[in-house]
From TrEMBL:
UniProt KW keywords: Metal-binding, Oxidoreductase, Zinc
Family: Belongs to the zinc-containing alcohol dehydrogenase family.
PANTHER family attached to this UniProt entry: L-THREONINE 3-DEHYDROGENASE
Listed name of the protein: L-threonine 3-dehydrogenase
Organism the protein comes from: Aerophobetes bacterium
Database matches in InterPro entries: ADH-like_C, ADH-like_N, ADH_Zn_CS, ER, GroES-like_sf, NAD(P)-bd_dom_sf, Zn_alcohol_dh
EC annotation from Swiss-Prot or TrEMBL: 1.1.1.103
Spans through the membrane: none
Boundaries of every Enoyl reductase (ER) domain copy: 9-341
Length: 343
C-alpha cells in the first residue's frame, strides 16, 4: 500500500510502499477513503519542538482525521464488521484509569494518539482500535466522515458556550474556527464575529455564517468588538488560533460573566491580570481537548447528515497521497482552509 511516513526529525514526509497491515486483537483494518490535514500534522511535517513531546519513535505514519470502509477485523471485535463505514477517533483510551472510569475517556491518563504515538491514516489502509472506531450510518458520505473528528472540539465550545441570542467571537478562521462559526449560526447566535489576518479565510468565514469580520492588521479588535456589542463585550469567545497575543487581547473584550474557550495552543505563557480580567469579570475560562466519546460525534453526524451545516466553503482543496507535498505547501502557506488527501 502507499503510505506517507515521518522518518526523520527534520522537515518533510516521504511516500513509500508498505505491506498492508494485519489487524491484531481488538483492531480493525480500514480501507481509507478520505483523510484531512490537521494543524498538528503541519507541526509533524515541519518537525517543531512540540513533536518531541508527543512522538514516541520514528518512522511512523501520520494523519488522524479519516473515514473509510472496514475490510478486516481482528479477534475479539464485536461491534464492527467487514463492510461498515467508519471514522477514527484520535484519542485511544485505556478504559481503566480514573478519567476513563469517570466517563472522561477523551482525557485518558494513559492515552495513545492515533497518527501521533501510533500509526495513523495517511495511507491506503490503516489500523484503528475498535475502542476508537466510530461506525457511521450507511448513507453517510465518507468525505464528510473525515471531518467529524476535527469538528468535535469547536462543536463542544459552541454547545457549552450556550451561544443562543448572544454575541460570539471566533479568533482564528482556520478549519477549527470555521466549524465554530457555522455551528454558532446554527445554534442561534445573534452576532458571530470572525477574526483573522488572512482575507481569504475571512471570506470563507462570511460564507460559513459570520455576521462581522475583523482583520487585526487593519483595525483595533478590542474597539471593534466593543462597538459591535454596545460596549458590553462578547458573551462567548472561542480562541482557535493559538496566537498568544490574540488570546491576551481577548480578555479586553470579554463581557462580565462571559465565557472564553481555548482550543488553540499558544507557544508561550500568557500575561494576564487575573484580578481584573478574570476574577472581577467572573469570567469562565474553559480549555477543551478532545471530543466527548461518543456524545459529540452523534451531534456532529446529525449536523452533517441533515445538511444543517454546509462545509463546502471551507473544504478548499483535495489532493492524492502522491501529491502530499503540494497539499502541505498549500496548508502551510494559508492559501486554503480544510485540505483533504484522498487515497
Amino acid at each position: 500500500m502507499k503510505a506517507i511516513l515521518k522518518k526523520k526529525e527534520s522537515l518533510g514526509f516521504e511516500l513509500e510502499d508498505l505491506p498492508i497491515p494485519e489487524p491484531e486483537e481488538g483492531q480493525v483494518l480500514v480501507k481509507v477513503r478520505a483523510t484531512a490535514i490537521c494543524g498538528s500534522d503541519l507541526k509533524l511535517y515541519e518537525w517543531t519542538p512540540w513533536c518531541k513531546s508527543v512522538v514516541k519513535s520514528l518512522p511512523f505514519i501520520p494523519g488522524h482525521e479519516c473515514s473509510g470502509e472496514v475490510v478486516k477485523v481482528g479477534k475479539g471485535v464485536k461491534g464492527i464488521k467487514v463492510g461498515d463505514k467508519v471514522a477514527a477517533e484520535t484519542h485511544i483510551p485505556c478504559g481503566k484509569c480514573w478519567q476513563c472510569r469517570h466517563n472522561r475517556p477523551h482525557t485518558c491518563q494513559n492515552m495513545e494518539l492515533f497518527g501521533h504515538t501510533v500509526n495513523g491514516c495517511f495511507a491506503e489502509y490503516c489500523i484503528i482500535p475498535e475502542i476508537s472506531t466510530r461506525k457511521l450510518p450507511e448513507e453517510f458520505p465518507l468525505e464528510k466522515g473525515c471531518l467529524l473528528e476535527p469538528m468535535g472540539i469547536p462543536l463542544r465550545a459552541v454547545y457549552e458556550g450556550e451561544v443562543e441570542g448572544d454575541s460570539v467571537v471566533i479568533i482564528g478562521c482556520g478549519p477549527i474556527g470555521q466549524f465554530a462559526i457555522g455551528i454558532s449560526r446554527i445554534r442561534g447566535a445573534e452576532k458571530v464575529i470572525a477574526i483573522d489576518i488572512n482575507e481569504k479565510r475571512l471570506d470563507i468565514a462570511s460564507k460559513m455564517g459570520a455576521t462581522h469580520l475583523i482583520n487585526p492588521q487593519k483595525e483595533s479588535v478590542v474597539e471593534k468588538v466593543l462597538s459591535l456589542t454596545e460596549g458590553n463585550g462578547a458573551g462567548v469567545i472561542i480562541e482557535a488560533s493559538g496566537n498568544a497575543e490574540a488570546l491576551e487581547r481577548a480578555f479586553g473584550y470579554l463581557r462580565v460573566g462571559g465565557k472564553l474557550f481555548t482550543i488553540g495552543h499558544p507557544q508561550r505563557p500568557l500575561k494576564i491580570d487575573v484580578s481584573s480580567q478574570i476574577i472581577f469579570k467572573e469570567a469562565k475560562i474553559v480549555g477543551l481537548w478532545g471530543r466527548q466519546i461518543w456524545k459529540t460525534w452523534e451531534i456532529a453526524e446529525n449536523l452533517l447528515s441533515t445538511g444543517k451545516l454546509n462545509v463546502e466553503p471551507m473544504v478548499t482543496h483535495k489532493f492524492s497521497l502522491q501529491d502530499f507535498e503540494e497539499a502541505f505547501r498549500v496548508a502551510i502557506s494559508g492559501e486554503g482552509c480544510k485540505i483533504m488527501l484522498v487515497p
